[in-house]
Structures are given as C-alpha cells and as structure tokens.
Amino acid sequence: MLDERVRAVLQRLERDGRDPRQVARTTGQFLFSLVAPQTDCEVLEIGGSRGYSSLWFAAGVRHLGGRVLSLEKDAAKAAEWRANVDEAGVAGWTELVEGDWRDTLPSIDDVFDLVFIDAEKADYEEIFALARERVEPGALIVADNITSHADPLAAYAAARQADPTLESVTVPLDSGLELSVVLR
Length: 184
Description:
Layout: H1 4-16, H2 25-35, E1 41-46, H3 52-64, E2 66-72, H4 75-88, E3 94-98, H5 101-104, E4 112-117, H6 124-132, E5 135-144, H7 150-162, E6 166-171, E7 177-182
Helix pairs in contact: 1-3, 2-3
C-alpha cells in the first residue's frame, strides 16, 4: 500500500515538476485503484519515464501480489526510475527493461492483466497491436493522454470503441484515459 517511503518519493516527483510526461496525481491514484484489488496482478507499462506511474502500480500490486514490468528507452530516465523505485522500497515488485519498445516488447512472452501505454503518441496503434498479443480476455489496456493529445489520439480511441472484441470508454480524468477491456 502507500507507506511513507512510497508517499515521500511520489511527493518529491510531484514537486520537482521536471517530467512533463508524468501522469497527474489523480491519474496515479486511479491506476493504483485498478490494480490494488487484483490478486497476482501483472502490469506492463510502456513508457516508464522516471517511475512515477510505476510507483503507483507497484504500491498497488504489492498488496495482493503481482509485479510491474516497465519499458523505458531513455537511459537517463531509466537510471532515475531505478533510483526512485529503490528509494520507495518497491523494487521487489518491479522490473525495468531498458531500450526501445520496438526491440524489447516483441521478446516479452508474459501474459499481463493490465497494459498501460504512455509513450510517443504516434506509436499508440503499433504498441496496442503488440500489447494485445500479451493479454487474454478480461485484461485491461489503458492509454494515457487521449484528451490532451486529441489530434493524434482521437483515431486511437475511435478504433478501440469500434472494435467488437473490446469494451472501451474514454475517461476524462486529467489528460484523458482510454480504457479497453479485452472481451475476446
């Protein structure tokens, strides 16, 4: 759960404001609420950045078991991710794969309960296609920045909502999230 170590790192990252890609606190709380009630929840995060959303996920999965696998291509951000995860005391529930998702994601064989997409907006469709191969019915795929970047991502949301194998909805929280439950 959110112990003092996790809270302290989250608050520091919120205050420093150096990462414009960092999700808002309320989005972090929402992500936490998606994973915390699940037993052995496996999370794939594409675009880990400095680890802010990873901390929310890790705090959630450590309650009933699970793990967070985060992909990050920027070496400096990956180093900060590791430091933040260690400082928060959630390293036992997280793993970082450093490198471009195009190179790392195809080699991941795991099956995930939740996939979080927060990467380059032009890549969302391709990321979704690869991530879809790593989930089963009942899984949730969450894409960030749907309303804040509506120009490039409106088509992404429309495609998910038109897909009969998904149940999708745009949640207008902060930068906007597209939640897609995999039906089949």
